[in-house]
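Progress note, sequence design subtask.
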């Protein structure tokens, strides 16, 4: 038996026409002799009736402060609704199906509500369903604690579900009754052709992004961390750790190849960067200290809170942090608590800055050369730089939010195209 895990984002299931197109992708896989395990996100985005944001709004109208446990219980409903809807749709097409919540599919998490991590998988019910020839549907973005509390896996958590299920199936040589088990590369379906060289919405009018044919695991991890909508960061790191190849494809058109990640075709371009990633409307705070021990303690606390942050080089006498906003809780409050426990104060600057990053394997051996080129491109465009950071294959610049699109366009034109 050869299994394929397919993940469908919220836009793929937000309307009846889109649900039918997604169903076609599932049926095509079954027609090729594959046995699909389908991970489904909540329907649509903000404004759609069953999107996660709208579900949360229904209770926040009563009280803005929802207990984390109850918030996860509420947020898990969107994926359950879309999963049952898709399983029912496939059944009307003549396929035998079964729908699982994340917990029913065996995803056991820790107890960090809102940002849970998978600690183990108990896939026996899922494997038995495959043994019975069923098309298996699993609600993404959620799991259960060991004492059966529902948790959610953070924004983009359905990606995490899909990678985790691929990994556990890949590590299962046989089904319960002895049939040999193989796994095809994971398929991530979105409403775009694949991973782009920049977010088209972040480019100025007249500039165009292109589809990237292939990415390495490292490029995928850093692009995800730095704001590109490739894959949830936790999912990207898990895919890299366990060497799980996948493809990002357009759910509307099965003929488009999309972007392959981590497969044999993933390779660097020597002369150009791979992509420009951007993260809009960050929270920025400064600390009047360069004490590395203290900064390490603050980073440790932010890691414990599972807040994505960027430590930047700015003025010599201070440390600067940029923090990715969280959808469902007040980051400013969390940051304030982190600093108050150490007797420190800071002003959180919300939304006036953005992070724009150059990413690519080509940077690995010549980072200083690339940094000079990027600096010149930003200076030529008149972009103000308020902080920088760099890693093996990325260069990041903190710029005013008002200049974000201009910065993305300038770097894309100079270093990617």
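Output:
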């Amino acid at each position: 038996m050869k299994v394929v895990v397919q993940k469908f984002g919220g836009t793929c299931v937000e309307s009846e026409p889109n649900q039918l197109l997604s169903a076609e992708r599932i049926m095509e896989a079954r027609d090729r002799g594959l046995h699909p395990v389908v991970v489904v996100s909540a329907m649509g985005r903000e404004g759609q009736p069953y999107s996660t944001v709208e579900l949360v709004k229904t209770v926040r109208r009563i009280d803005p402060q929802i207990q984390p446990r109850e918030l996860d219980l509420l947020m898990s409903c969107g994926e359950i609704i879309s999963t049952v809807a898709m399983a029912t749709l496939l059944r009307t097409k003549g396929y035998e199906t079964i729908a699982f919540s994340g917990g029913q599919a065996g995803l056991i998490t820790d107890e960090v509500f809102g940002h849970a991590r998978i600690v183990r998988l108990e896939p026996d019910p899922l494997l038995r369903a495959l043994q019975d020839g069923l098309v298996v549907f699993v609600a993404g973005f959620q799991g259960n604690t060991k004492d059966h509390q529902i948790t959610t896996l953070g924004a983009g958590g359905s990606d995490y579900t899909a990678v985790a299920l691929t990994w556990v199936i890949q590590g299962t040589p046989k089904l319960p009754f002895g049939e040999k088990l193989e796994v095809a590369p994971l398929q991530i379906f979105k409403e775009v052709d694949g991973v782009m060289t920049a977010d088209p919405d972040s480019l100025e009018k007249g500039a165009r992004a292109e589809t990237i044919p292939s990415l390495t695991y490292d490029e995928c991890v850093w692009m995800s961390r730095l704001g590109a909508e490739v894959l949830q960061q936790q999912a990207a790191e898990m895919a890299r750790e366990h060497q799980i190849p996948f493809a990002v494809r357009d759910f509307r058109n099965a003929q488009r190849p999309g972007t392959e990640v981590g497969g044999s075709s993933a390779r660097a371009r020597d002369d150009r960067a791979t992509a420009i990633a951007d993260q809009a409307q960050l929270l920025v705070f400064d600390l009047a200290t360069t004490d590395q021990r203290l900064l390490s303690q603050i980073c440790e606390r932010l890691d414990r809170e599972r807040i994505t942050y960027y430590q930047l080089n700015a003025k010599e006498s201070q440390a600067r942090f940029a923090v990715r906003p969280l959808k469902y809780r007040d980051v400013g409050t969390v940051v304030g608590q982190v600093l108050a426990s150490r007797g420190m104060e800071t002003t959180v600057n919300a939304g006036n800055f953005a992070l724009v990053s150059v990413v690519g394997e080509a940077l690995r051996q010549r980072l200083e050369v690339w940094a000079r080129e990027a600096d010149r491109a930003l200076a030529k465009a008149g972009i103000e730089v308020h902080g920088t950071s760099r890693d093996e294959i990325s260069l990041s610049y903190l710029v005013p939010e008002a200049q974000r699109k201009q910065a993305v366009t300038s770097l894309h034109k100079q270093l990617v195209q």
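The two ends are 43 Å apart (CA to CA). Work on this subtask will continue into the next period as scheduled.
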